[in-house]
Design brief:
The protein has 14 helices and 16 strands. It is α/β, with parallel strands linked by helices. Helix 7 links the parallel strand 10 and strand 11. Bound molecules: zinc ion. The site of zinc ion has 5 residues, from loops.
Length: 422
């Protein structure tokens, strides 16, 4: 398939009827009502039949860890299911990881994403190892897979910054190696003061090296874990909200409503993005609860009703933190919709934004380059179902994944038969 392509019988979200979408030199050149008589005479090198599937911009995974992907059960399973045991299992596994091991598992994760229409991913890489091996592998891989997926690499100090003597130096070294963003775990630092100090250090480094910030923040059920307010205050004071995200913020689930309201208004004032990872958090949180067990997800509905940008991440793929996952963003979306009471018809239709446009905003993807519009790069996915509602309901496979007019991947429709009368 060349990058001059005509895609016939495609549907547009929210529109009735069938359309033809023309791509020239990798750019969307024209979108018009489908006319079968003209289509038959097409002079385009390649003609693709979308068979009535809806076209969407590519999916965005706003938060994923390639370095731990596909290590579930190695060298042991996380039997308690807690975040802390997950970190221990992960550290044990990292101790035996090699360059080829990191590489093959990350490639497997990317293959899953490509098959599932993900063309943008923010990848958090643990930088607590002195060798920084995982980071070096991911930075190299990022360049090698540019034709498939845009990767943003975040230096993620899994063991904290202020709680370990060498961690700040390692973090700065990681930044100098060429990461895109800087992360942190203030809620895992030994003290509240250490957590606050780590946030100041992250902002200092981000300012000095011109990086974005994406902090694993308040990923706990502890209603006294209150670091989002510190991040928001720094983002406001330093005018860095547009390049700052907070991931998880599950403690927001457990705050009293008055404090939650204050935090949400600070996030709004800071213009920060929020990344929720519902799959991992629904199983990692609530582990200290007797019944009723908390859901372990941030207040997506309240955040979005304030106009705050919320996007979703897979977070973990078959590792010590979360044992399932394929690369598809639909399970995360499905989980978020259920846990956050977002199943009204308008909610379902707009929910796709959490894995498309909102993710693009979190990742600061140039709006001129993202979206299915004439003049923009032909990065798009064509689904097997005709509209967003059916895609979300069916967790529909991506029929075609197209990037710069090139066909990256296809999934053939499954055929099913029932052999008796209904
Ligand atoms: Zn994470």
């Amino acid at each position: 398939m060349h990058n001059n392509v005509k895609i016939n019988r495609v549907r547009l979200p929210g529109e009735s009827g069938l359309y033809s979408l023309s791509i020239k030199k990798g750019i969307i050149d024209n979108i018009e009502a489908f006319d079968p008589t003209i289509a038959d005479k097409s002079t385009f090198i390649d003609v693709l039949d979308a068979e009535g599937g809806v076209v969407l911009p590519p999916f965005v995974d706003s938060h994923i860890h390639y370095d731990s992907a596909y290590t579930a059960g190695e060298s042991r399973w996380n039997t308690s299911g807690t975040l802390l045991e997950g970190i221990k299992c992960n550290n044990d596994r990292q101790g035996i990881a090699t360059e080829s091991d990191y590489l093959s598992r990350a490639k497997k994760a990317i293959q899953g994403q490509v098959l599932n229409g993900v063309q943008y991913a923010r990848v958090h890489v643990d930088v607590s190892q002195e060798s920084l091996l995982a980071l070096k592998v991911m930075l190299k891989l990022k360049e090698e897979v540019k034709h498939l997926i845009n990767i943003q690499v975040v230096a993620f100090p899994q063991m904290g910054i202020t709680s370990h003597p060498k961690q700040y130096e390692l973090l700065e070294l990681a930044v100098q190696l060429g990461v895109d963003g800087i992360g942190g775990v203030p809620h895992l630092e030994m003290t509240r003061e250490g957590g606050v100090r780590s946030i100041h250090q992250i902002f200092d480094l981000a300012e000095q090296y011109n990086k974005f910030i994406d902090i694993h923040c308040d990923e706990t059920d502890d209603d006294q874990s209150r670091f989002v307010e510190v991040v928001a205050a720094q983002a406001i004071i330093r005018n860095m909200g547009s390049v700052t995200s907070v991931s998880h913020i599950t403690a927001l689930h457990s705050y009293n409503n008055a404090y939650a309201s204050k935090v949400i208004s600070l996030i709004k004032q800071a213009k920060m993005s929020v990344v929720s990872n519902p799959l991992s958090n629904v199983i990692l949180q609530g582990r200290f609860d007797n019944y009723p067990v908390r859901r372990g997800i941030t207040r997506i509905k309240s955040l979005m009703s304030e106009g705050i940008n919320v996007s979703l991440g897979q977070d973990n793929l078959a590792d010590a933190f979360y044992p399932l996952g394929t690369g598809s963003m639909f399970p995360a979306l499905n989980m978020a919709l259920h846990l956050c009471h977002l199943l009204g018809s308008k909610d379902i239709d707009s929910s796709i934004d959490m894995i498309t446009y909102n993710g693009a905003k979190t990742l600061s993807i140039n709006p001129e380059e993202y979206g299915v519009e004439v003049g923009k790069p032909a990065n798009l996915i064509i689904m097997q179902d005709p509209n967003v509602y059916e895609c979300v309901r069916n967790q529909s496979p991506v029929r075609f994944n197209i990037r710069h007019g090139q066909l990256l991947a296809e999934n053939l429709p499954l055929k099913s038969n029932i052999f008796s009368k209904i």
